[in-house]
Specification:
It is built from two helices and seven strands. The chain is α+β, with helices and mostly antiparallel strands. The protein has one domain. It comes from Lapidilactobacillus dextrinicus DSM 20335.
């Protein structure tokens, strides 16, 4: 599926990934409704990997945005 379709799923609380990713890059999800020291934090995306630390910020590049191999993770 295209990124726009996957993004809609992600914004509804789902997890997404690209089929071309290695097994170590498991999925991307949205973090929202968070606060730090009493201040609201804007929503952002994290990627879950099998590396330590297991979670990293995710910012899709142009190739990822234009890719059509996105899939939903259960």
């Amino acid at each position: 599926m295209e990124f726009s379709q996957a993004l809609a799923h992600l914004k509804n609380g789902g997890k997404i990934r690209r089929s071309s990713w290695s097994e170590g890059e498991e999925y991307v999800f949205e973090v929202k409704d968070q606060q730090w020291q009493g201040h609201e934090i804007n929503p952002f995306m994290l990627i879950k990997t099998d590396e330590v630390p297991a979670y990293s910020m995710f910012q899709p590049n142009s190739c990822e945005v234009l890719a059509d191999d996105w899939e939903i993770v259960d």
